[in-house]
Design a protein that fits this description.
Helices cover 38% and strands 17% of the residues. The protein is of the alpha/beta class.
């Protein structure tokens, strides 16, 4: 019976996903489709003001800081990433904000305590924000970093002032089939707990997402690794959230691969919210 239910759920997700992709072509306005066209960009702030470590309860976390603006941004990289993943976006954002680029547990130069999950990383980021003395920072994440932003806001609603989650999925079943298949094959030959996490987590229920109380912007690419319907699902279940689907974008082309585009859509939304 359980196997039948799982098969049924898989086909339901697949049908919903395919429908949303075709519907986006016909009704892009329904999904708040955006076409990011950077213009009048400030010069990137290439010199960082700090590169250091902070000892948290379980992790010695490596981080870098750009800029000295009044409002703080915490930029969280994706699975297998590092401070370099969102460095270009940070350099643009540093013109208006103080931008913190931490490295998650088991990533980059941060320590590996042996275990990893989005729940544990949310705890780490709560501790990092407290250790840095940040008051209601804007938390922005890409891919797994987007999942971290959502998890932080759901588990600790009073910590972030706002979140921007890009390229996040609500469950492994909502990936387009090629992606988890590729991760699973890779994990056979190169076993890694980061792969296992992607194949088994997260599991964002409507009730869980409803815990988020801060302003939230949920963004995905038209050709992302998860179905557009999943971005819609996440946004619809976070009270008062905004959503956008970036036209012609893949998983990373508007974020980690293009700092100018990242700066453009991030600052447009933050300005609209008074940040």
């Amino acid at each position: 019976m359980t196997a039948f239910i799982n098969i049924l759920l898989t086909f339901t997700v697949l049908f919903s996903g395919l429908y949303s992709q075709f519907d986006f072509i016909i009704n892009p306005q329904k999904y708040n489709a955006i076409d990011i066209k950077p213009s009048n960009l400030p010069s990137p702030v290439t010199e960082y003001v700090a590169d250091d470590y902070v000892q948290l309860s379980e992790v010695n976390m490596h981080y870098r800081v750009y800029g000295s603006g009044e409002k703080a941004i915490v930029l969280i990289h994706g699975n297998g990433g590092s401070i370099n993943s969102l460095k270009e976006a940070a350099e643009y954002l540093a013109n208006e904000y103080t931008v913190y680029l931490p490295e998650s547990r088991c990533h980059g130069k941060s320590s590996d305590p042996g275990e990893i999950s989005y729940e544990l990383m949310a705890k780490d980021y709560k501790e990092f924000i407290e250790a840095m003395g940040l008051e209601k920072p804007i938390v922005i994440g890409h891919s797994d970093g987007g999942i971290n932003a959502i998890t932080l806001a759901a588990d600790y609603p009073d910590v972030p002032g706002a979140i921007i989650s890009t390229g996040a999925n609500s469950h492994p079943k909502t990936f387009k089939l090629y992606f988890p298949l590729g991760v699973a094959i890779k994990n056979i030959f190169m076993p890694d707990k980061l792969n296992v996490m992607m194949l088994t987590l997260p599991d964002f229920t409507p009730e869980y997402l409803s815990h988020i109380t801060c302003p939230a912007y949920i963004v995905g690419g038209e050709h992302d690794i998860m179905w557009i319907s999943d971005t819609v699902y996440i946004a619809e279940n976070i009270p008062g959230s905004d959503m956008a689907i970036v036209k012609s974008a893949s998983h990373s082309t508007y974020m980690s691969q293009d700092g100018a585009k990242a700066y453009t859509f991030i600052t447009e939304w933050l300005n609209s919210k008074g940040f």
